[in-house]
Amino acid sequence: MLNPTLVEQLRQIVGAAHYRDDREALVTHSYDGTPMLQALPDGVVYPANTEQVAAIMKLLAAHRVPVITRGSGSNLCGGTVPLQGGVVMVTHRMNRMLEIDLENLTATVQPGMITAEFISHVESLGLFYPPDPSSMRISTIGGNIAECSGGLRGLKYGTTKDYVLGLEAVLANGEIIRTGGKLMKDVAGYDLTKLLVGSEGTLAIVTEATLKLVPPPKTKKTMLAMYRDLYGAARTVSKIIESRIIPATLEFMDNPTIRVVDDFAKLGLPHDMEAILLIEQDGEPETVERDIALIRSICEAESADRIEVAADREEAEKLLTARRSAFTALARLRPTTILEDATVPRSKIADMVLRINEIAKKHNVAIATFGHAGDGNLHPTATTDARDPEEIHRVEQAFEDIFEAAIALGGTITGEHGVGVVKAPYLEWKVGAAGMEIMRGIKQAFDPDNLLNPGKVFAKETRKRVVIDRG
Amino acid sequence: MLNPTLVEQLRQIVGAAHYRDDREALVTHSYDGTPMLQALPDGVVYPANTEQVAAIMKLLAAHRVPVITRGSGSNLCGGTVPLQGGVVMVTHRMNRMLEIDLENLTATVQPGMITAEFISHVESLGLFYPPDPSSMRISTIGGNIAECSGGLRGLKYGTTKDYVLGLEAVLANGEIIRTGGKLMKDVAGYDLTKLLVGSEGTLAIVTEATLKLVPPPKTKKTMLAMYRDLYGAARTVSKIIESRIIPATLEFMDNPTIRVVDDFAKLGLPHDMEAILLIEQDGEPETVERDIALIRSICEAESADRIEVAADREEAEKLLTARRSAFTALARLRPTTILEDATVPRSKIADMVLRINEIAKKHNVAIATFGHAGDGNLHPTATTDARDPEEIHRVEQAFEDIFEAAIALGGTITGEHGVGVVKAPYLEWKVGAAGMEIMRGIKQAFDPDNLLNPGKVFAKETRKRVVIDRG
């Protein structure tokens, strides 16, 4: 429960209609896209501008009340669940495109703008903003910045981090900072812009972002390659890159995913394939034709059993459906779907998929794997039932093994979903005790009273790393 | 003077030959590429590997002795001058290429490797590492990482930051951390990799770097466009980008630079031009031809007085000579050459060049400007004489005005040279008091005893920003 005077002051800052603490508002903001996590906030506030955010922060800091900044809550790491209560600050009213600068190829936006709306506005002007997280139809630009969202185009174009040039942000004490600018080069001090991207709302509240836009590719071509041999698919991925081709998209689905997707979307996919690669190249027409022809010959050399190249956009959309429906198809199987994003160097994809399958078998859980093969960012996805604690325990054990396997292969516990609360116990496995200590020091520098999204990134307890019987 | 026991221990760590405190070694490491700055260290140490660096740091931390990490000392911000004495740690013995991974397109190198040697090795394998600072023939990869070096290809390909995927670094207390990896996506905690890049040796000592390589462009074409109208040149820059073309290189020289370069290199450049643009495009042959034709038509529409497109690599080299000899030609004029790198949004280049000319006139100093027009990164260069304190004072006043003008135009005090000691008094102008406070907190988290390159980035005194008579 918040102090009634504080509540009154919050209402004065944002207007009575924009602070809520009714049951419906609290429950709606007690969870996000992450399964099996819920905690009620004490209030929900909807600021209209930076000044309101700053005033709110000054007030909450004086009362030592935690604040959880939230876009659409589509994250998958529990990043916006108010674990320690406090106020959820929703950015939806700050959803305007402030400027598109055609001379400098930048866009300046408020954090609450929906990613897909931003992208389609940018595209209507003949420009291109590559980060395309699967949640883009509901996610916000601010949420993408908080999580450093990736997507299907990450291999060729990078992730959100590569497109954030400057930020305005409110600190825990209510002060406003500005980092970077419409500048392709800026080395004035430590790079606070890149530090804030991916900091999951634990360091500052982003209130405005200047994003880099790029010229759009002129054309795009899409193909599928299907393999009975998992290693053939993995070798194809490496061979494409080794041939000095960076495709726009290079996605992977394993056999369990193929079967579920086909049952769901009736695409006529062969159920006996161990892997399907979805490959897209974009750019100048001549380059695209040449690259796709070369990729096709690599697929053939690596014994792909079937190759389909889309003749037009309509056929391409059909091929894309296979990959796009993966999560939805898997989510139909059981009541609870847990999607992870263990990531490895791209040369280790086949090893990782095999390890995932062994681990699933060992713990007797159902895990299907799909993801971004080109950048080694896999999504092992468990279909389970949150009402069965014994099974959930086995799923958790399996993911623990998966994180460990990813790190053993030179990878990481999260490629694009973030640490949040779900992966906090494993973060030390990746960054080490000294790395954790440095990160705690950075948190301290920004937020000495631990008011910004407390309980995220830093776990109360780190999981012990045990020697696991590889059986 | 260092404690003799400490010196003995340093000798034991690296071997007697690899610690020096003779006069020659101290003087050689008392200055770097920056004019008018000198301070003697107490000793110079040449570690052979990470373990030695860690042991040295444990020892120096116990004795509270500052350490200044140094590659070739080619930086231009006083970044490696041992202002507070201490030990200069030279990375030259740690100069090996540890691995080129063709499957993941990464290179893992030690920090002391010379940039140009790294690049030519990479190119001999048919790959490409774009960052190309002008100092690349002497600079080291570690120095490039410390300063986040840019170069002529920054516009299209980005700077050092965009190519560092992972680091091994030794902390002030001698602990070793590893950040990132051979991973295109990694959001496990705060991005320490990008934070260390450009941190100028003030946060940690980089002992190993994993760098991203990319497929090389198939071909390249070079052209010069000359203008009597400065704004015509500036509009050309903006129009090229607005036309959705990102050239590989888009360089600028103003009239004073053109004249000096021509006197030096006898290129037959017309002395009455206000600006020359050097433009290069690379990529697939068809794309390059199309882009260069379109760029040519933009130059013509913006009233370029003369356009030269190189027919072959030999002609291209001749055109490149004009830009490449700018610094050398200017350096011949007077005993002291001060090269700055005020940076503005690219749409503001003409405004900035005119402001620089006004400022030079006001303070009665000679400043020629050239630089990377495509990314707004200008190099106003003062030719002066360090032996004349009155003139040097006027030059300093002029640069103070230039930094202020850059910030007023939405720019920054340094695009690629770093803050070091030279620009430390101005850093607060760009990042604000709250930004400085956060940066101090970050420094504290990494280096609580202020042993790593002390006196850099953070100035003892910040210059007051005064209202200047624009006369």
TrEMBL record, chains A, B:
Keywords: FAD, Flavoprotein, Oxidoreductase. Residues 37-216 form the FAD-binding PCMH-type domain. This is FAD-linked oxidase C-terminal domain-containing protein. PROSITE patterns: FAD_PCMH. The keyword Flavoprotein applies. Pfam families: FAD-oxidase_C, FAD_binding_4. Its cofactor is FAD. PANTHER family: GLYCOLATE OXIDASE SUBUNIT GLCD. InterPro entries: FAD-bd_oxidored_4_C, FAD-bd_PCMH, FAD-bd_PCMH-like_sf, FAD-bd_PCMH_sub2, FAD-linked_Oxase-like_C, FAD-linked_OxidoTrans_Type4, Oxid_FAD_bind_N, Vanillyl_alc_oxidase_C-sub2.
